[in-house]
Design a protein that fits this description.
5 helices, 214 residues, 8-stranded mixed β-sheet, alpha+beta
Amino acid sequence: MNENKNSEIEILSLNPIRLHPQLYFSDFTSQGLSQFITEIVKHFIDPKFANLCNRVEISVQLDSSVVIIDDGKGLPYTLLNPEEIETSGLEKIMTTIYPGATPSQSEYQNCSFLFNFMGPLLNAFSELLVVETTVNKNRYTLTCGRGEVIKPLQNLGFTHEKGTKIYFHPDPSIWSTVNLDIEFLINSLIQLANEYPKIGIVIENKKIGETFNF
């Protein structure tokens, strides 16, 4: 199994997303926010993105933030060019737009967040975004928000954890509400579960103490 590489990343500016969010996503209501979360989940599990996960957990927190965890292969994390810049590949994935929304090498299809601008959209549409990923048995974390990096990549050390964890708190200056339409989200996840029956999907709503398994 090939690890994700970041030497192939091509980048453009992230500024257009914050300046003109309606060009990248059409619905900023409660239902639209729920659809956005569904699209994130789909990027975790869609086999054409080769993330190779078997299970995705979605947790709606008391403050309306959302935590998404998968058991896939993780995202790129190392320096793009340590001799020239001090920016990690993970930071580039979450803060930049990729031309054509496709990787320059077929091998980079291992990274789902290079498609459809989902990494940059997550950052641009968030008040706070924390990304954790495991590569080579080391856990890495990056903290962003409103299109910027708040805390650069940190190595948390050795771990037995797998996959990627996303903490997403919607930016109220972008979304008309930060409250999800839970019923819409659950129905959307049921559709995903039917579309990808081999992937386990779990949603926990901590606001009412309910958990659903699909």
